[in-house]
């Protein structure tokens, strides 16, 4: 099996570098004594049977902690964007100082923010400097209590392991020998299969989120073009005016989701644009809206661009959902089924409701820019509800 990566994270001075050296069996990470950290950037150390990623420690200073969090997030996002297995994170060691007998809320917040991309990767809490055997039980109870207050982190907590990474001299006749390292290595190895699956899912989720954001941007841009076209063409929402914009949007979305523009699902979506299906939907919506208060209030010069925007939103969102099915590996047929599912529903009523919402704060004197902004707000509000 390919070697996995362990992210070592925690406050400065907690003993992360000492722990890494003990696990790898050699002095690869710089260590120091005191509460100041020695790691100034993320480093990956090759080891057996897994690699270890050392991180910048969280500091009491708000600015320095932000820097540490940003470094981890930058590493994570780069790994996801490149889909690079050599830098993905499979297990997380969250290091807690066993001598402090405290786990401050800020440390948990910093942990949560740092690993926000890795939403399902398993966590092991490593209680470093666990010299006092009686205090180990208290520290384990403390960790369990604090983690139980954070639902997202608690469901990923797999182990709490007290360790002594290097010999600690208590006095002239007594010392605390290294302890817990073998248990930590064994526990990490056991979690690696889960970690590989979790990392793959988290990377897919992250990249899917990026594609959804790009798709939303493409839809909003096309809405602006459609609204402008309708104003230039005396308030019409004719398919000949809009079909070029709609087809270009479909091409953009297929590219975003890595779907061949000549694929079955792409061609079916475009056929609905060119064969008059979309135009019939728009005309049906116009005939209904003209009789409603919103239509009488705004007039055709404003209503038609709003309908054009609504139709573009409908095509864009249904195409994006269909392409997402293909991107996720469900195949062309499921993408087609998703698109047909949308267009077999009562889309005219859906467009009418969209027009009511978009036009609610507009007037008969509204500009193309104001209509576009209202439509963009509508698209963004739908995204927020989904999240």
Secondary-structure map:
Elements: E1 5-10, H1 16-24, E2 43-45, E3 51-54, H2 62-82, E4 91-97, H3 105-114, E5 123-128, H4 133-148, H5 151-154, E6 157-162, E7 168-169, E8 175-176, H6 181-232, H7 239-256, H8 264-274, H9 277-289, H10 293-298, H11 300-327, H12 331-343, H13 347-359, H14 368-386
Parallel strand pairs: 1-3, 1-4, 4-5, 5-6
Antiparallel strand pairs: 2-3, 7-8
Helix pairs in contact: 2-3, 2-6, 6-7, 6-11, 6-14, 7-8, 7-11, 8-12, 9-11, 9-13, 11-12, 11-13, 11-14, 13-14
Please summarize what this structure is.
With about 375 residues, the chain is of the alpha/beta class. About 60% of the residues lie in helices and about 10% in strands.
Task: Describe it.
The protein is an alpha/beta fold and 387 residues long. It folds into two domains: 5-179, Rossmann fold; 209-386, no CATH class. The chain is 60% helix and 9% strand. The chain has 14 helices and eight strands. The chain has helices at 16-24, 62-82, 105-114, 133-148, 151-154, 181-232, 239-256, 264-274, 277-289, 293-298, 300-327, 331-343, 347-359, 368-386; strands at residues 5-10, 43-45, 51-54, 91-97, 123-128, 157-162, 168-169, 175-176. The chain has a six-stranded mixed β-sheet with strand order 2-3-1-4-5-6, sandwiched between helices. Strands 7-8 form a two-stranded antiparallel ribbon. Helix 3 (105-114) links the parallel strand 4 and strand 5. Helix 6 (181-232) runs antiparallel to helix 14. The longest helix is centred in the middle third of the chain and has 52 residues, at 181-232. The radius of gyration is 28 Å and the shape is elongated. It starts with a strand and ends with a helix. The model is unreliable at 30-40 (pLDDT under 50).
């Amino acid at each position: 099996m390919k070697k996995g990566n362990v992210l070592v994270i925690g406050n400065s001075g907690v003993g992360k570098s000492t722990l890494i050296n003990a696990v790898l069996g050699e002095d690869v990470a710089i260590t120091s004594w005191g509460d100041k950290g020695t790691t100034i950037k993320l480093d990956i150390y090759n080891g057996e049977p897994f690699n270890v990623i050392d991180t910048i420690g969280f500091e009491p200073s708000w600015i320095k902690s932000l820097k540490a969090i940003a470094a981890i997030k930058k590493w994570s996002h780069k790994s996801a964007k490149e889909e690079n297995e050599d830098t993905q994170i499979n297990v997380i060691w969250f290091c807690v100082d066993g001598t402090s007998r405290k786990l401050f809320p800020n440390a948990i917040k910093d942990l949560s923010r740092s690993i926000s991309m890795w939403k399902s990767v398993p966590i092991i809490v490593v209680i470093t400097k666990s010299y006092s055997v009686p205090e180990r039980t208290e520290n384990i109870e403390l960790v369990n209590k604090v983690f139980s207050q954070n639902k997202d982190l608690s469901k990923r907590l797999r182990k709490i392991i007290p360790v002594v990474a290097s010999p600690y001299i208590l006095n002239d006749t007594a010392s605390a020998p290294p302890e817990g390292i073998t248990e930590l290595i064994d526990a990490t190895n056991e979690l690696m299969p889960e970690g590989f699956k979790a990392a793959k899912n988290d990377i897919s989720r992250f990249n899917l989120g990026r594609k959804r954001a790009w798709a939303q941007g493409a839809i909003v841009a096309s809405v602006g073009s459609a609204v402008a076209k309708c104003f230039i063409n005396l308030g019409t929402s004719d398919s000949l005016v809009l079909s070029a914009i709609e087809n270009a949007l479909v091409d953009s979305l297929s590219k975003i989701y890595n779907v061949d523009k000549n694929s079955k699902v792409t061609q079916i979506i475009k056929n609905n644009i060119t064969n008059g299906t979309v135009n019939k939907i728009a005309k049906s919506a116009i005939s209904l809206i003209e009789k409603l208060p919103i239509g009488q209030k705004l007039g055709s010069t404003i209503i038609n661009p709003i309908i054009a925007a609504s139709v573009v939103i409908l095509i864009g969102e249904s195409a994006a959902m269909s392409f997402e099915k293909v991107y996720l590996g469900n195949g062309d047929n499921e993408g087609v089924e998703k698109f047909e599912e949308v267009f077999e529903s009562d889309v005219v009523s859906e467009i009418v409701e969209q027009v009511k919402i978009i036009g609610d704060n507009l007037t008969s004197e509204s500009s193309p820019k104001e209509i576009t902004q209202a439509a963009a707000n509508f698209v963004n509000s739908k995204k927020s509800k989904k999240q």
